[in-house]
Amino acid sequence: MEMLHAEGIRKSFGHLEVLRDVSLTANKGDVISLIGGSGSGKSTFLRCLNCLEHPTGGEIRVDGEAIAFRPDGNGNMEPASKAQMRRIRSRLAMVFQSFNLWSHMTLIENVIEAPIHVLGVERRQAVDEGLRLLERVGLYDKRDVYPAFLSGGQQQRGAIARALAVQPVAMLFDEPTSALDPELVGEVLKVIRELAEEGRTMILVTHEMSFAREVSSQVLFLHGGRVEEAGAPAEVFGNPTSQRLARFLGNLN
Amino acid sequence: MLVGLMRSLTIAFGAFALGLVIGVAGALGKLGGGGATRQALDLYTTIVRSVPELVLILIVYFAGADLINGVLTAFGQEKIDFNGAVAGIVVLAVVQGAYSTEVIRGAILSIPYGQIEAAHAYGMSPWLTLRRVTLPALLPFALPGLSNLWLIAMKDTALLAVLGFGELTQVTRQAAGTTKAYFTFFIAAGGMYLLATMLSNLLSRRLEAWATKGVAHV
Predict the structure, then answer these.
(1) Quick one: which of A34, A193, B57, B114 is 20 to 30 A from B191 by CA?
(2) CB contact under 8 A, B112 and A103
(3) Nearest by CB to A102, which of B120, B137, B213?
């Protein structure tokens, strides 16, 4: 079952073409990793999926519903209906590189914020569910703590709980471990791995190659705004056909 | 004199609150508005912050009243008598609004942008983002500046004495003039301002402690 589909996404910043033609289809339970060097366009592509960046061209379908676009006056496209965009965004949970938890809210308040104020869930129900999710990411005892008093790994696990709370159609991870100290990476990857195992649909921009190889159902290697190579992780990592990918992987090892 | 004090505090509070509303709107306009909005707001904050407050108060009060009455007469309406607390509040709010615009604009810029982006990413509307994320998140950055503004609002009410409002300073002057006990009355008035300031400081410290509970103190 198709959860998220993007077709021919293009994105330019002025004269700079960042994405030339990137497509992706995520079916239920797929874990798709986007890899590539910096400037390859992988984060921009991810941010086009929930329109944090306005794409220049292309189509996006979420849970079978196509996002309606119109010209935004800067040469890009903006969502034609803000209400539709908000509805779709609320089901595409994003986990950011720098966590972006709301600093004036405790952990549990962060988790229940979108369910209550965007999705209209009853408070008691949102809190019950939120506590269950915090328990799941190992932060139940930190539920009343403000983000600034938590480690990076704890904040990111909290951000994942916040993402799970909206019962997402698909989860978007934008380099979720890149801002973490090395010793904290493992605890976050462990949570993401568990989500992959339980069949969550996820799009993951990452620099953690061995992790991508292990959890992904599909890997896309982006270079210069195009998908240079795509396939099952064993093929992409074990037997790269493009020279650029071979070099990219070689430089990492 | 207590009546005068109450009147001063009422005007100060009204002007401060109205100024805050102007400030939030002004800050949002400066940060997110179009070119024309931004230029108009720049003009407003620059003029108000460079002209002495006393002059400004006279300008807004007399010129503003003339303008409004001119419009009213043109439409065949009765003239309004611009006396009393409401006029004082409006006049001071124009001054306060310019300063709060800058305080709040700075505070919004201090919020890590990712938090606002996260609000968008989770489907919050602009209004919901403002109410649930931007405004509460800017408080820790804005409160020191805003409590300063509140103190200034309180003392600026004294300038309204030139317009003949019966606020604390005006009342004191009258009482002192009648009884010739200048020293006693003005010391008493000074004491009242001092007391009000001290109470305000206490309150703003509490407020700040509450607003910064999510901020790690290193």
Answers:
(1) B57
(2) yes
(3) B137
Report the domain count for chain A: 2
**Three-point CA angle A52, A208, A57, nearest 5°:** 30
Sort out which chain A residues have CB atoms less than 8 A from B119's CB and list them: 102
Q: What is the pLDDT of residues B156-168, one digit of tens each?
A: 888 888 777 777 8
Question: Looking at the domain assignment, is residue A48 inside a domain?
Answer: yes
Range of the domain at A62: 1-91+170-183+198-253
Mean pLDDT of chain A: 93
Q: A106 and A80 in one domain? A: no
Q: Please say whether the beta carbons of A56 and A75 come within 8 A.
A: yes
Both A84 and A114 in one domain: the answer is no
Q: Residue A79: give its domain's CATH number.
A: 3.40.50.300
Task: Give the single-character DSSP code of B75.
Answer: T
Q: Which of B123, B140, B215 shows the shortest C-beta gap to A90?
A: B123
| DSSP state for residue A8 in the 8-state scheme | E
DSSP for residue A92 = E
Eight-class DSSP state of A67: P
Q: Kindly list the residues from chain A whose CB atom is less than 8 angstroms away from the CB atom of residue B120.
A: 52, 89
Is residue A189 assigned to a domain?
no
Domain membership of residue A192 (yes or no) is: no
Chain B partners within 8 Å of A99 (Cβ): 114
List A95's β-bridge partners, or say none: A173
Same domain, A58 and A126: no
Q: What is the pLDDT of residues B51-102, one digit of tens each?
A: 888 888 888 888 877 888 788 888 877 766 666 677 788 888 999 999 999 9
A86 and B137 within 8 Å at the Cβ level: the answer is: no
Residue A234 to chain B, least CA–CA distance (Å): 33
| Residue in B117, B123, B124 closest to A100 by CB | B117
Question: Which chain A residues are closer than 8 Å to B213 by Cβ?
Answer: 146
Is the domain of A79 the same as that of A144? Answer: no
Containing B13, the helix (H) or strand (E) segment is helix B2-32
Do A9 and A86 fall within a single domain?
yes
Can you list the domains of chain B with their CATH numbers? 2-211 (1.10.3720.10)
Dihedral of alpha carbons B50, B53, B55, B58, sign: positive
Find the mean pLDDT for residues B17-30.
93
Please tell me whether residues A37 and A77 are part of one structural domain: yes
